[in-house]
Amino acid sequence: MDLKRVGTKFDRVRVDINENFDKIEGKYKGLQKRFDNAVEEVSEKAFDKVVDRAKIDWLPPVDTFDDLATTYPDATEGQTSMTRDTGKIYRMTNGVWMEIQDFDATAINEVDARLSAELEGARQDLESRGYDIRWNALDAIDDDWGLAINKINDYLVSKGGGVILLPKIGVFTYKTNINISKGISLSGLGASLKADARNVTINFAGSNLVDGVIFDGNDKTGRAVVLQGDKSYVHRCTVKNVYGDESTTNTVGIHITKQANYCVIKDCAFDKLSAFENGIEGDLIGAVRAIWLQGQFAVIDNNNFLGMEGYEDADYIYVSADLKETNEYPANKSPLVNGFFAETFAVITNNTFYNATKSAIKLQSSGNLIANNTLINVGVDLRYAWRGYSTTGNVVKNNSIYLYGCVVTSSVYQFQYNLNTVIKDNTLHTDATARSEIVNAVDLIYNAEMIFDGNELNFSRYNVDNIFYLSGARRMTLSNNKFSGTDVRQTYTFNQDLVSDFRTNNNEISYERTNFPVVMSTNGSAKNVNFEGNKFMIGELLPSASHFFAFRNVDNLNIIDNHIVLYKKDQSIQVRIEGCTDVEVQRNAFDARVTVSDGSKNVDIIDNVFNKDVLSAVFVNNEAGEAPENVRVIKNVAHKCTYFVSLNGNKSKKNIEVIDNTVGGWTTDQHNIIFIDAAGRPVQRMEEIYVKGNTPARRFDYGFTSERPAYKKDVGYSYFDWSLGYVITWNDTNWVNGNGDTV
């Protein structure tokens, strides 16, 4: 490029300044070309790879992994499906079906390393050959360096581009908006641009390299930096003292607009962002964001955030996009919007957030990766950590949260009305020395196709109401997670209908005290719910606890291969099944009993072990509803009980089968395989009960001679005849006494 030579109006500048332009003219072009090439490489190669590897095009689930090849023989890159047998998600990547957690940001890291090297070389060149704004000191009228910078910018634009250099450590006030044109770079080398008028901003038109600048809002501007065009790179900058007054909506440190795609914010710091609060909720005056991202394909990496004070929304990073309307579930359940927010494909990685108040990251956009970030709150109450609303295809992975002596007033994770979300391998740690409160650890309201896998949540000395608060969960898998804590009221709470195809598998839960670990209470009918392979280690139940698993109105419920251990107190708890249909309770190890009540039908209780001394291993009851029907109790083992199966309630239970069970011992001398309470004796139809092969089975029933059961009985079937005053036994033909005489 041809640079203008310095004339007589620059007499204040050394005579040899013109020699600097000779150097810049020859060497700046090379520097600019290297930067443009680096940004181009990020935008056209690395980002393309990340987008290809992050995007998810969901296909209907298949039964097994082998079915993927036959069902989708022509699958293309990004198409994704779930296998029903394992609940795993597979994505077509480079022609191969791979688990979705194989996503990584290698392409970004490789290019970022090369770009960082280019930046280091650029900094060295800038120190000796940048356009020093002090050369235009006379243009900074009334200490408004914005006027000087804008004039330098216009001059460099006329010459095809350039670099504006702020001298090291200098502080330069501005009272007018600063507008940096496309292709113009700004290097601060530690210098500060300090606002000295209300609501002035610094705007970048695109393809800008911004390095080492301190953007000081001086509590006078509510929007410090605005990126208005593609491919800008903000590196090693600080944004601080941003304050939105009573006229400011959405106070923002750096705003990446819809027109600004492929931008990078890296190695920056954000501190002291706040806003005026007018007392009106929902009007966005008082909302604060360190970064507001609206453009696509941005990278926000390795930044530090602290000092956020917001009264409406206070999000360190807010990612938003336009709404795409649809009636698809679960978007159609939202009371606020009818659709999903569009894709932004942001990569938000390796950032550290300190003392968030509302949330660290809020997503109202789709297709983003949130990975390897850290949130640390010390003594500052938090409402949310990560949250997302009406989105699709977001991945939240390998993030860490540390909470010390603070209260979580809502949820650590809150995701509402989302589709195809993966939350994987995240950790939560709390301070063992400071007791605090959490309402909900994970708040999942109307989500579908969600994976919550491999996360570790530790609530040491925290009172937690719910680990999971779920409503409207469809096609959701919670697997391979570890939860531990001191006082946890409930692990899973379901409080609405529409729950279907829900799996919680292979989780490890360990609490010192808890109330109701699993409560599924629905207004309608949930269906296809699977609890399998989970381990519960519980010290003791809180005084109000009576149920361990409580399920109500669930069709097709499986409770299989779970272990429930109470290791501190000898307490009586139960797995309660109420109003459920088609239930399998198999191969569990319970320190509890199983209660089947009020209208439950087709319940199989098979091959379970009841470890604790209980009044009854299986309790079949009706309290306010219809009597249970078709309950099979087969091949179970009870450590010790008073009655193995107890039938309670004032309605006759239908088709009760008790077959081949084993009782290790009895807590009384009654030895009842089946006990019928006083309310049930007048109404219970004996022909609806079948007992066979239980060990020991010394006594089953009693009554007067006229009431002897006439239905099918096995040899050795016992009956206490009140008319005779002793036990008689069925020999396959007649009732006989102890001497073998027919009576």
Give a written overview of the molecule:
By secondary structure, the chain is mainly beta. Among the domains are: about 15-120, no CATH class; about 705-743, no CATH class. It contains 4 helices and 63 strands. The protein has a 53-stranded parallel beta sheet that branches. Strand 3 and strand 4 form a beta hairpin. Helix 1 (about 15-55) packs antiparallel against helix 3. It is elongated.
Task: Write a compact overview of the structure shown.
With 743 residues, the protein is mainly beta. Helices cover 11% and strands 46% of the residues.
Instruction: Please give the largest β-sheet.
Output: 53 strands, parallel
Number of helical segments?
A: 4
Helix content: 10-25%
Shape: elongated
| Estimated radius of gyration | 35 Å
Q: What portion of the residues fall into strands of 2 or more residues?
A: over 45%
Q: Low-confidence parts, pLDDT < 50 over ≥5 residues?
A: 1-29, 42-47, 101-109, 696-700
Keywords for this entry:
single chain, 743 residues, mainly beta, 53-stranded parallel sheet, 63 strands, 11% helix, disordered N terminus
Task: Record the SSE blueprint.
Elements: H1 17-54, E1 57-58, H2 66-71, E2 79-82, E3 89-93, E4 96-99, H3 106-129, E5 131-132, H4 145-158, E6 162-165, E7 171-174, E8 178-180, E9 184-187, E10 192-195, E11 202-204, E12 209-211, E13 214-216, E14 223-227, E15 233-235, E16 238-244, E17 251-256, E18 264-266, E19 269-275, E20 288-293, E21 299-301, E22 304-309, E23 314-320, E24 323-325, E25 339-341, E26 347-349, E27 352-354, E28 359-364, E29 369-371, E30 374-378, E31 386-389, E32 395-397, E33 400-404, E34 408-416, E35 422-424, E36 427-430, E37 436-445, E38 448-453, E39 456-471, E40 474-479, E41 482-494, E42 500-505, E43 508-514, E44 518-532, E45 535-541, E46 549-560, E47 563-566, E48 574-578, E49 581-586, E50 589-590, E51 593-597, E52 601-606, E53 609-621, E54 629-634, E55 637-648, E56 654-659, E57 662-663, E58 672-676, E59 689-692, E60 701-703, E61 718-721, E62 726-730, E63 735-736
Parallel strand pairs: 1-2, 5-6, 6-9, 7-10, 8-11, 9-12, 10-13, 11-14, 12-15, 13-16, 14-17, 15-18, 16-19, 17-20, 18-21, 19-22, 20-23, 21-26, 22-27, 23-28, 26-29, 27-30, 28-31, 29-32, 30-33, 31-34, 32-35, 33-36, 34-37, 35-38, 36-39, 37-39, 38-40, 39-41, 40-42, 41-43, 41-44, 42-44, 43-45, 44-46, ...
Antiparallel strand pairs: 2-3, 3-4, 24-25, 61-62, 62-63
